[in-house]
């Protein structure tokens, strides 16, 4: 562990399943926290998905197998809790309570333990299935995504799980900093509704329901969407009049100087912009617009993005992975491979 690790000396227990919980604790482990992954006999289910899947969510952790349904497992959990700062779990509420993974159940071992429960709808929200795509459907995300004349659309990655993982990590750290133990309750539903911030506010205060626009166009800013070019697609995001003035000069477009005028004459603006952009490739426009400070980028595939940004790829054991997104001056994370099952059965003493 790096001597300058921000979370050095912090021990976190994880009873994580698949993505949301393991992602949260991996972010903390990358920052130097000692994360012990408590796995059931046979291992956490994501070990069955693929080796690269498991590696992408569980680097820098330790693994201890505990049967939490047994008396011996309960005793072992209590011993770990007594010398830990936090426990994070993502399961159904009934399973969390049945296995004794709440603050009320664990405070007898450590009154200052922080217990984070990640669920679909909250600890008191019931056990309805709450997978990422289900939450996106239930919170309106899918309905506002996609072409206006097409079906609802889901993004190509687990946005609800990942967002909830980051939120849970924030809640965990906040309660540790407070110096108090207690229960932290984070749900996928609440996180996704929170992330709809200005969309939700527009409806709650102005009665404005979200509408889908072609090419993922923004509801306020024009032009701010994907555009077809002579080759490939370009993301263009004009948020203020200065951007527009610079873009319009480069594209040979006159008029529509204000944001209000562009919004009120959306179809006219988009027709002119589309015609102009058809005169060059997406990469060509990117190369022309970015030096002018205009937000624009050619649409890349994931392989193209990783090839263009090799600095984000790190090695952890036998696996190449994307590095931590948190960069702190003076600290360089170590990237250790994901643990083998029960690799740390003896549960090392606290590192502080």
TrEMBL record:
<dbReference type="InterPro" id="IPR050483">
    <property type="entry name" value="CoA-transferase_III_domain"/>
</dbReference>
<dbReference type="InterPro" id="IPR003673">
    <property type="entry name" value="CoA-Trfase_fam_III"/>
</dbReference>
<keyword id="KW-0808">Transferase</keyword>
<dbReference type="InterPro" id="IPR023606">
    <property type="entry name" value="CoA-Trfase_III_dom_1_sf"/>
</dbReference>
<dbReference type="InterPro" id="IPR044855">
    <property type="entry name" value="CoA-Trfase_III_dom3_sf"/>
</dbReference>
<protein>
    <submittedName>
        <fullName>L-carnitine dehydratase/bile acid-inducible protein F</fullName>
        <ecNumber>2.8.3.16</ecNumber>
    </submittedName>
</protein>
<dbReference type="GO" id="GO:0033608">
    <property type="term" value="F:formyl-CoA transferase activity"/>
</dbReference>
<dbReference type="Pfam" id="PF02515">
    <property type="entry name" value="CoA_transf_3"/>
</dbReference>
